[in-house]
Amino acid sequence: MDHQEGARRVKGGAPAGLQHGALRSQEGCWLPLEDGIEVYFAAEGTYRTGDYWLIPARTATGAAEWPVNAARKPLLQAPLGVQAHYAPLAWVLGERTEPDLRQSFGPLAAPVPAANDEVLAAEAATATETGSTRGGGSGRGGGGGSTAVALG
């Protein structure tokens, strides 16, 4: 059954007072939804836009899997949903005094130094000793080759 179809249905236990497919929440009492399913919002609870609860329901047994206490009474569960985290960025003490509270850290990688003449000469000497050219590969009529470069 389509969830919108159930929201529009008046017969079969659907609550009266639906507005745009939504039921106004009431705290501290059981609210009937349909087919014997009821929900309960704790009095003085804190609820925010985006809160939700996952309720596994099994068609084989026709039961919803919800945690219960020793007396088999349903337990209240905190809502799931968007978790917001906040951090202070500055503390304004007065005119032009805003100490920065952000945690800063340096770069994670060190810069690669530019090659100088000494390094380039050592690289060329190594290439001459091994008989290879910089870049490796094969020439127009030659076979394949490889290049070994050692930097000190």
Report on this model:
By secondary structure, the chain is largely without helices or strands. 13% of the residues lie in helices and 9% in strands. It has 2 helices and 4 strands. The protein has helices spanning 3-8, 117-130, and strands at residues 30-34, 37-40, 57-58, 63-64. The strands form 2 sheets. A two-stranded antiparallel sheet has the order 1-2. Strands 3-4 form a two-stranded antiparallel sheet. A hairpin with a 2-residue loop joins strand 1 and strand 2 (37-40). 0% of the residues are buried.
Taking pLDDT < 50 over at least 5 consecutive residues as the criterion, the unreliable ranges are 1-14, 136-152
SSE pattern: HEEEEH
State the helical fraction: 10-25%
**Biggest sheet character:** 2 strands, antiparallel
Shape: elongated
Secondary-structure-based class equals little secondary structure
Gyration radius (Cα, Å) is 35 Å
Which strands sit side by side, in order, in the main sheet? 1-2
Q: What's the tally of helices?
A: 2
Name the average pLDDT: 73
Cα separation of the termini: 72 Å
* Portion in beta strands: 5-15%
How many strand units? 4
Quaternary structure state of the chains depicted: single chain
Quick take:
The chain is 13% helix and 9% strand. With 152 residues, the chain is largely without helices or strands.
Key words describing this protein structure:
two-stranded antiparallel ribbon, 152 residues, single chain, little secondary structure, disordered C terminus
